[in-house]
């Protein structure tokens, strides 16, 4: 697994390496469930950054930001201190004001084994583009065009 800061964009998939630190774990030594949402947020942020769309620039230039509308999480297997994980982020759907992401978090280090990566968590998450008053607005056209192009790299849906 590459330790490249910000991850790598491979076709329509963004991959972000994450290491589990002590602060990510609970009293039992496992990754605290809410921290998987943090890891996924980093994956979505780095995907946008890899496409040249930074949250601060979107907010400044277009006056919009993103808010989570819906989140579905399926926990499959736990991660532990010092594990190496990989967050994969894909665009599942794009609508006028929303983006649906499919994210998977895998064990990617020595505990996963050389040949396979163990699926830990699967997340389906929808974000809406909102204005400063918190009302849904259409995705800015440059962001929409970039996301459409990325999604097309994945082939037919």
Characterization of this structure:
Belongs to the 4-hydroxybenzoyl-CoA thioesterase family. One of its GO terms (molecular function) is fatty acyl-CoA hydrolase activity. Keywords: Hydrolase. Pfam families: 4HBT_2. By secondary structure, the chain is an alpha+beta fold. The chain has a single domain, classed as Roll (Thiol Ester Dehydrase, Chain A). Helix content is 23%, strand content 35%. The protein has three helices and six strands, in the order ββααββββα. It has a six-stranded antiparallel β-sheet with strand order 1-2-4-5-6-3. It is globular. The two termini are 28 Å apart. The model has no long low-confidence stretch (mean pLDDT 89).
CATH architecture: Roll
CATH superfamily: Hotdog Thioesterase
Find the count of extended strands (DSSP E, 2+ residues).
Answer: 6
Strand content: 35-45%
What is the class in the CATH system? Alpha Beta
Number of domains: 1
Number of helices: 3
Give the radius of gyration.
16 Å
CATH topology: Thiol Ester Dehydrase, Chain A
> Spatial order of the strands in the main sheet?
1-2-4-5-6-3
The coarse overall form would be globular
Low-confidence segments, given as residue ranges, are none
- Report the helical percentage: 10-25%
Major pleated sheet = 6 strands, antiparallel
SS-based structural class?
A: alpha+beta
What does the average pLDDT come to? 89
Distance between the termini: 28 Å
Order of helices and strands: EEHHEEEEH
């Amino acid at each position: 697994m590459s330790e490249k800061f910000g991850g790598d964009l491979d076709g329509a998939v963004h991959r972000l390496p994450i290491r589990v630190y002590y602060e990510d774990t609970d009293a039992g030594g496992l990754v605290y469930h809410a921290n998987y949402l943090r890891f996924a947020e980093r994956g979505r942020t780095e995907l946008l950054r890899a496409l040249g769309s930074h949250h601060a620039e979107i907010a400044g230039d277009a006056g919009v930001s993103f808010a989570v509308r819906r989140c579905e999480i399926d926990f499959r297997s736990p991660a532990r201190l010092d594990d190496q994980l990989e967050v994969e982020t894909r665009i599942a759907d794009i609508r006028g004001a929303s983006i649906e992401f499919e994210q998977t978090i895998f064990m990617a280090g020595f505990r996963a084994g050389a040949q396979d990566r163990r699926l830990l968590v699967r997340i389906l998450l929808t974000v809406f583009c909102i204005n400063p008053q918190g009302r849904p607005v259409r995705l800015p056209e440059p962001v929409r065009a970039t996301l459409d192009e990325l999604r097309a790299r994945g082939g037919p849906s």
